[in-house]
Design goal:
This protein is mainly α. The chain has one domain. The protein contains four helices and no strands. The longest helix has about 30 residues. It is elongated, with a radius of gyration of 24 Å. The termini are far apart.
Length: about 90
């Protein structure tokens, strides 16, 4: 394969461009759900129930704070939430 894009024939250039377009599409398809979950984590419950497809109206950490307050593991993280590594070994 030729090393320079300018030294390629028309067919080789087309294959090169199509190959990289396909790889870029695969990256977008792979990253889209991750980005969507991150963006959706900033929504309030009302926003999720009213329109799950829309973007959040406010990017704040209020949902994370309320989840942290409601979670007992957050207050007792020093006890390991009741799961100790040696409790799984018999």
């Amino acid at each position: 394969m030729k090393t320079s894009f300018g030294a390629m024939t028309g067919r080789e250039r087309l294959c090169f461009v199509l190959k990289y377009l396909f790889m870029a599409l695969c990256v977008v398809v792979a990253l889209f759900p991750i980005i969507w979950v991150i963006l959706s984590s900033f929504k309030t419950n009302a926003e999720i129930l009213s329109n799950g497809i829309s973007l959040p109206t406010y990017f704040g950490f209020d949902g994370y704070r309320s989840a942290r307050r409601a979670d007992s593991c957050g207050r007792h993280h020093h006890r390991g939430c009741g799961y100790e590594p040696h409790s799984f070994v018999r």
